[in-house]
Amino acid sequence: MTTALTADIIDLLSGLTPGDELARLRDLRAQARENAQLSFVALLEPENPGQFSLAERYAVALFVAQLHGFADAEAFYADVLGDEAPALVDLLTGPDGLAAHAAASGPSGSYREPGLHEESTAARAWTPDEADTAALGERLAAALAHAHLLVIRPREASPAALGALVDAGWSADDIVSLSQLIAFLTFQLRAAWGLRAVAGSAPGGAAAPADPALPVVASGESSAGQVSVAASALITEYPDLSRPEAFTQQGLGWVPWLAPVAEADLAADQLDALVDPARAKMPYFRLLARDPAALRARTLTDLDIFFNVTGGVGRAERELAATAASRHNGCVFCASVHSAAATRESGRRDDVQRLLDEGVGADLGSDSWNAIVSASVALTNTPLSFGETDVRGLRDAGLGDAEIIDVVNGAAFFNWANRLMLSLGEPELPAKRVEQ
């Protein structure tokens, strides 16, 4: 599709044109704009898609857009999928389409951490039924089930969920690309929707009705199954891992469920994708290096959103948005990193800790911080519902449009980051704290 190859997709989905004031403000983060588009190219228009076909990529994108309730994104991805596999469009869309039966609200589900079990919420697990699996094929059926998990129940991701992909024929490299695709889409859709809201053109959002046909996972339980013997060749579990009890500002480690690329085996394009050579020591980035083009674009998007402070909101407020999204999604690792950064940038340790301890409804002692947390949480909800009230709250707290776009980008990006961290591995306590 020519439009997909040439247009800035976030501009397209948000309705921005080159002369718009919000388009000018987006240009303040030119590296983020460019690399969000390059992420689209890497994940949805790769030159060599390999076994992870374009039709599979577009079908996942359409399904994720449907779960978010973003009609223009649904139309866009249905269009590109129709060029590759029109039968899949018919299967996914319409009042009796597969996505209609998968509709649910998130983030929901059970926490891994014992100290957070009381915050667990009933979740609706979904997989295609036998007839739909036959129509989709086992690979795509497993990919859509995984997409539903990551979009709606990200904190319930598990080694068994990756094992289900392995059993359906997904390689380790393609699992990383699939994970990046799903997670990227949760950023892209929120960034575009948020721009619409700032422009005053976001549709009214509504919570998806619960579908009684979907099995409910009760609060405090998990839908995770067992890793098959065959999948265990690729999946690593850690039965004796020292796990954190709850959210914390203290540093945590992270262990991967899929094998990262060994440091000595990193190819030139993978080393380049790390951007910072020190990241070659980090298993998380070496795992993402299995798809180097996606990793490089993601990293450069991240750096511009969080470290380019020209004409926008402060570093502390961006880290606060990241922390709020992570707290709401249930990503204890991301929350630890970015709550510590929010404290470092602001000096407001007690306020940041209150967000971690009491949750996203905590009073943080200032109108601007409360508004940023509230907006970040609203943007993190699925289906999308961030709108006029949230933007007005930010403006009433003194933020201008450039600052609001930074908050939107910060929260949106951490929907991407949270889903990768939650679905490809898990946090651990550093050895020195275990010994204490």
Task: Describe this structure as you would to a colleague.
This protein folds into 2 domains: 2-221, AhpD-like, CATH 1.20.1290.10; 253-435, Up-down Bundle (AhpD-like). 58% of the residues lie in helices and 3% in strands. It is built from 22 helices and 4 strands. The strands form 2 sheets. A two-stranded antiparallel sheet has the order 1-2. A two-stranded antiparallel sheet has the order 3-4. It comes from Leucobacter komagatae. InterPro entries: AhpD-like, AhpD_Avi7169, AhpD_core, CHP04029_CMD-like, CMD-like, Uncharacterised_peroxidase-rel.
Question: What is the total tally of β strands?
Answer: 4
CATH superfamily of the largest domain: AhpD-like
SSE-based structural type: mainly alpha
Q: Bin the helical content.
A: 55-70%
Level-1 CATH class name of the largest domain: Mainly Alpha
CATH topology category name of the largest domain: AhpD-like
CATH architecture of the largest domain: Up-down Bundle
The pLDDT mean sits at: 94
| Shape category | globular
Q: Classify the beta-strand content into a percent band.
A: under 5%
What summary fits the major beta sheet? 2 strands, antiparallel
